[in-house]
Design brief:
There is one protein chain. The chain is of the alpha+beta class. The protein folds into two domains: 126 residues, Pnp Oxidase, Chain A, CATH 2.30.110.10; 52 residues, Methane Monooxygenase Hydroxylase, Chain G, domain 1 (Up-down Bundle). Helix content is 34%, strand content 37%. It is built from five helices and eight strands; from the N terminus they run E-E-E-H-E-H-E-E-E-E-H-H-H. Strands 1-2-3-8-7-4 form a six-stranded antiparallel barrel. A two-stranded antiparallel ribbon has the order 5-6. Helix 2 runs parallel beside helix 3, helix 2 packs parallel to helix 5 and helix 3 runs antiparallel to helix 4. The chain is globular. The N and C termini lie far apart (41 Å). Bound molecules: flavin mononucleotide. The site of flavin mononucleotide (FMN) has 17 residues, from strand 2, strand 3, helix 1 and helix 3.
Amino acid sequence: MLRNLNLDDFGIYEGISETIVTTSRGWAMNAAPMGIIRRKDKLFMRIFKDSTTYNNVLSEKILVANVIWDPIIIVSATFSDLNDSEFETVNFNSRTFVSLKKAQCWVAFECTNTKLTSESLVTELVPVRTHINKCMIRAPNRGLFGIIEACIHATRYRLTNDGKYLKLIKAYGDIVEKCGGENEKEAMNLLYSYL
Ligand SMILES: Cc1cc2nc3c(=O)[nH]c(=O)nc-3n(C[C@H](O)[C@H](O)[C@H](O)COP(=O)(O)O)c2cc1C
């Protein structure tokens, strides 16, 4: 455990922080958007069944939360597998884990006190290693937030096929069109291609 770690320094504040979680099993590396729930200095994650992240966390009991603003990575990690070249391998205390090369920073966590329910697991996260790649100053951009919201509705749409999610995705798509840059617009087109 890392003592005196200030999670704010790694962009993980109270509430739910959207990160890209990287995990691995054997040679297979995986990335998926997952929210870290922080209440004071306690951290949790709820991971729904039937995802690769769920299986990897159960088996390896370690995950890396990457802080990243890249909209293409966010969309790609939601709906497909990232290219192996996007990952880097870190060796620490005789363990190997993976992070994203493009992350602004990442925190590796041990997953403890994991509780299983019929549909998900909830695990406590204990930070064991951190890394800062680059400090990025970026004003909030509604286009980027629109991508995140649209991704969430798109995962629900794929699960339920309920048309109300398509309307929401389209509404966020309009915001991306109005407020996003080229990267956000490309990411939104990529998202539409997965529906
Ligand atoms: C912004 C965002 C946040 C998400 N947060 C979670 C989460 O906290 N827990 C979870 O189980 N799924 C979450 N998801 C859904 C997973 O990312 C999605 O099911 C993904 O396809 C799982 O990929 P995997 O099979 O590679 O692990 C989130 C999706 C998005 C777009």
